[in-house]
Amino acid sequence: MSKLGSVSVIDHPLAGNYLRILRNREIQVADFRQAMYKLGLLLAVEATRGLQTTEDQVWTPLDVQATCRYVQDASVMLVPILRAGLGFLDSFMELLPAAKVAHIGISRDHATLEAKPYLDSVPEQTADFDRVIILDPMLATGNSTTKALEIITGKGYDPGQITLVNALAVQQGIDQVHSKFPDINIITGVIDPKLNDKAYIVPGLGDAGDRLYLF
Question: How many angstroms separate the CA atoms of 89 and 80, rounded?
Fold first, then answer.
């Protein structure tokens, strides 16, 4: 994985396989969903790399004790940003089956690009959670992400315990997030060059939510 400041871009060779499928406009919904799921697994491995572990002992079939370290995944909260963030949820729950899930719904005004929240099920901060992982395949303008971060930090969560996971990002969105939340760690599959005049990522993959659910 290569580092770009506080941005991590995965460089696993299989990531290219799944991004190639996601970018292809001819791909049907079932293949698109499957590629999003598989890319999500690679991103989940990277996003969980720094999780705290606990040590205990287990007995092996050889009647010997072994010291093991494990993640208490119930202390992780996953926050998919609706709708597209749901495309990563199963991937992360595959690796973190006991993780809690809160949802944030944000719609975008296509004329003004303003992010408008319509759903928030994030609980107030408690000692139960030591990591919050935001799931959103596209980091474009950064307006929706910063709105989600305002909601989450407004509940008492420290930005240093929050990780943002994207399939695609652009520098404009990264800069927008870090201008307001410099401690946020961003993990993405790729950084694309730019946004078009409608604020879509270019070359991108179109509207991730539409391709996951409306085709």
Answer: 7
* CA 167-168-169 angle, 5° bins: 130
CA 32 to chain centre: 17
Residue pair 122/100 in contact by the 8 Å Cβ criterion: no
What residues pair up with 80 in beta bridges, in sequence order?
A: 135
pLDDT in the model for residue 107: 85
Q: Answer yes or no: are the C-beta atoms of 14 and 195 closer than 8 Å.
A: no
- For 7-38, b/e burial (b = at least 16 CB within 10 A) is bbbbeeeebeebbebbbeeebeeeebbebbbb
Q: E strands along 146-199, which residues?
A: 162-170, 185-192, 194-195
pLDDT in tens, 108-158: 777 777 888 899 999 998 888 999 999 999 999 999 999 999 999 999 999
Partner residues linked to 134 by β-bridges = 79, 164
Q: Which letter does DSSP use for residue 125 in this model?
A: P
Q: What single-letter amino acid sits at 150? A: E
Domain spanning 2-213 has what CATH number?
3.40.50.2020
* d(C-alpha 183, C-alpha 113), whole Å: 25
- Token code pair at residue 92: 């992360």
